[in-house]
UniProtKB/TrEMBL annotation:
InterPro entries: Beta-lactam-related, Beta-lactam/transpept-like, Diverse_Enzym_Activities. Its EC number is 3.1.1.103. PANTHER family: BETA-LACTAMASE FAMILY PROTEIN (AFU_ORTHOLOGUE AFUA_5G07500), BETA-LACTAMASE-RELATED. Residues 29-356 form the Beta-lactamase-related domain. This is Serine hydrolase domain-containing protein. It is an enzyme of class 3 (hydrolase). GO terms for molecular function: hydrolase activity. It comes from Sediminicoccus rosea. The keyword Hydrolase applies. Keywords: Hydrolase. It comes from the Bacteria.
């Protein structure tokens, strides 16, 4: 872990956050742990480039208390980090997000995929939501390229919005290697994570010496999930769901996205690139996987003005953007207030519980913003 966290600390009151609402947020987390919904959790809020709240709860692994250095499986929160890698390539002129993927990954055009653009890929309109990458390809770049180029379409690209749990971001990883010559894990660390000063607390691919800090991810029945509980899975850096981090690292990452691509004097992207990436590309079209409009940007989704939204909180400002991790977590940023939020836990709960839990926690965080 790095010696100094890049965000300076301030009290909630100094940042215009109501401590009483944060107490209620913590009480809900503690009650869920006491009820057996998950062994442990971590939460953080930041505002205007300062860390205002950071707390760990319960156990990281059996008999191991969670602490500030604990690394939590981010699941699909990883997607926004991977997307930021593509944003950076676009900003550097190495690709255009309106271009087709096949222009940068020859062979991807097979099976009718030649017209799929990065915009369609990142907004879950690519047409291959069920495609899978075998574990054998996690460390085999040639096999990964072969597998993603062989993905079969399930419907015409652009005709539907349907969440791609893993497949789209494996394509992004293959593109990153094709364009840069680097493994996506090394590239994301060099280009996105390390420049923010988060290299000790945010990982897409956890090295062996750091893995003792990671949580065990549990199923609803309390058993350790597999393959998430293996060293190979932690090291793989699955680009759509295998990152690890602390809540304060994710709050800091989202502070950079709020602040035009820079935080604490560290810049990774330009304001104009972020303005292009974090906008609603799918309108109020329902996401067929989630059963509601998700207002997809090129990585995160946005609150929008529909009656409800997954994870970001009903009372969120319409411009609030973020992403969740299946059954376990959510991270978001509110451009109206400058607040970023991260909640991470170590059980993959059913959506019926997770959606309601996250709506409550996110709404408490929004309600804490009083000035």
């Amino acid at each position: 872990m790095t010696d100094a966290f890049p965000l300076p600390s301030a009290s909630p009151a100094e940042l215009g956050l109501d401590p009483a609402k944060l107490d209620l947020l913590c009480a809900r987390i503690e009650a869920d742990i006491a009820a057996g919904h998950h062994p442990g959790a971590q939460v953080a809020l930041a505002r205007h480039g300062k860390l205002g709240f950071f707390r760990s709860f319960g156990a990281a692994r059996h008999g191991v208390p969670a602490n500030d250095a604990t690394l939590w499986l981010l699941y699909s929160n990883t997607k926004v980090i991977t997307a930021a890698g593509l944003w950076a390539l676009a900003e550097e002129g190495r690709l255009r997000l309106s271009d087709t993927i096949a222009q940068y990954l020859p062979g991807f055009e097979a099976g009718g995929k030649g017209g799929i653009t990065f915009v369609q890929l990142l907004t879950h309109q690519a047409g291959f939501p069920s495609a899978e990458v075998p574990a054998a390809a996690w460390e085999d770049a040639a096999l990964l390229r072969e597998v993603v180029c062989g993905f079969q379409l399930e419907w015409e690209p652009g005709s539907s919005v349907r969440y791609h749990p893993a497949s789209a971001h494996w394509v992004a990883a293959a593109v990153i290697r094709a364009v840069t010559g680097e493994d996506h894990r090394a590239y994301l660390r060099r280009r996105i994570i390390a420049p923010l000063g988060l290299e000790g607390e945010l990982f897409v691919g956890v090295p062996p010496e750091v893995q003792p800090r990671t949580v065990d991810m549990h199923d609803v029945d309390g058993s350790v999930r597999m393959p998430e509980g293996t060293a190979a899975h932690r090291a793989a850096g699955i680009p759509g769901g295998g990152g690890y981090g602390t809540a304060r690292a994710m709050a800091a990452f989202y502070q950079a996205l709020l602040n035009g691509g820079a935080v604490a004097g560290r810049r990774i992207l330009s304001p104009r690139m972020l303005g292009y990436a974090i906008r609603n590309y799918t309108g109020d079209r329902p996401d067929e996987y989630n059963g509601m409009p998700m207002h997809r940007g090129l990585g995160p989704h946005l609150r929008g003005e529909t009656a409800g939204i997954r994870g970001l909180g009903d009372i969120a400002h319409p411009g609030t953007f973020g992403h969740g991790g299946v059954g376990s977590s959510y991270c978001w940023a509110d451009p109206a207030s400058g607040v970023s939020f991260a909640f991470l836990s170590n059980t993959r709960q059913a959506e019926e519980f997770h959606g309601a839990r996250m709506n409550t926690l996110s709404d408490l965080a929004h309600a804490a913003i009083i000035s």
